[in-house]
Write a structure and sequence with these properties.
Length: about 240
């Protein structure tokens, strides 16, 4: 499976999307209908949607938060395999997730960035300070820094906003030997362009997905993440050990 890689990798960047959490019980984003949990994205994932109907947006993310904190949702074998690989791999490793859930950290991943924010955090619209949250947020919830009601918003990067940690991500992409994209449709910019940045840096690029996405990676492997990810990363670790 990893035969086309030339030599032992020293630096990896992994990008994950909603597909890696699908087998943990969290629905992906874009079905054929372009809806997120039955809502048009313009309603629940844009600053304009929030201005129009903040209560609806609060309720949408309250539901996502409750779902994530329920007993039903747990990291699956793909999250666990990435954490295990990171612990055993000797080189540099950055896990970039578009997901707003916390399943990577629950599985034990460490060098991890959430480029689209986190559902278990909220942010003050005045000070931009970020706070942990586990309970429901309603429109008149008092902000923890300015004490004003109505100043809090989910710490989520909505369409039209700039993703987080881009300097760190671009630096890692420019220096990686292998870039692996897992469970992402490639519909959301700028994550959709990461494999091209990695290719320009002469990295070997790999896509692990349930189905074809239309992006031209060097290698495409299709199947459920809970099977592909453990298999791919165990093989990669073995190949690194054999070379050393
Ligand atoms: P997407 O929903 O657009 O695409 C999901 C991709 O995962 C598809 O290509 C699909 O073929 C693949 N997939 C589905 N099930 C899979 C499985 N079992 N194994 C492997 N691949 C599988 O997701 P995206 O590209 O991440 O973009 C969606 C945006 O929505 C992200 O920005 C994210 O912030 C947000 N979102 C997050 C979550 C979450 O945190 N879990 C869930 C839904 C949406």
């Amino acid at each position: 499976m990893i035969s086309s890689m030339q030599s032992s990798p020293r630096s990896l960047v992994i990008l994950t999307g909603a597909g890696i959490s699908a087998e943990s019980g969290i629905n992906t984003f874009r079905g054929a209908d372009g809806l997120w949990e039955n809502h048009p994205v313009e309603e629940v994932a844009t600053p304009e949607g929030f201005e129009r109907n903040p209560q609806l947006v609060y309720e949408f993310y309250n539901q996502r938060r409750r779902e994530l904190l329920s007993d039903k949702v747990k990291p699956n074998a793909a999250h666990t395999a990435l954490a295990k690989f990171e612990h055993q791999f000797d080189g540099s490793f950055l896990l970039v997730t578009q997901n707003i859930d916390n399943l990577h950290e629950r599985a034990g991943s460490q060098n991890l960035v959430h480029m689209h924010g986190e559902i278990l955090k909220m942010r003050c619209r005045n000070s931009h300070l970020v706070f942990d949250i586990r309970e429901d947020l309603v429109f008149d919830t008092q902000c923890r820094c300015c004490r004003s009601p109505g100043n809090l918003r989910p710490h989520i990067v909505w369409f039209g906003e700039i993703p987080l940690h881009m300097n760190k991500i671009n630096q890692a992409l420019e220096n990686c030997d292998i870039f692996v994209s897992i469970g992402t449709s490639g519909n959301v910019y700028p994550a959709s362009g990461f494999y091209q940045t990695a290719k320009i840096s002469r990295a070997h690029t790999v896509e692990l997905n349930l189905e074809q996405t239309g992006s031209s990676f060097d290698e495409h492997i299709y199947g459920p993440a809970s099977e592909l990810v453990p298999f791919y990363f165990e093989s990669l670790l073995e190949s690194v050990e054999q070379v050393e």
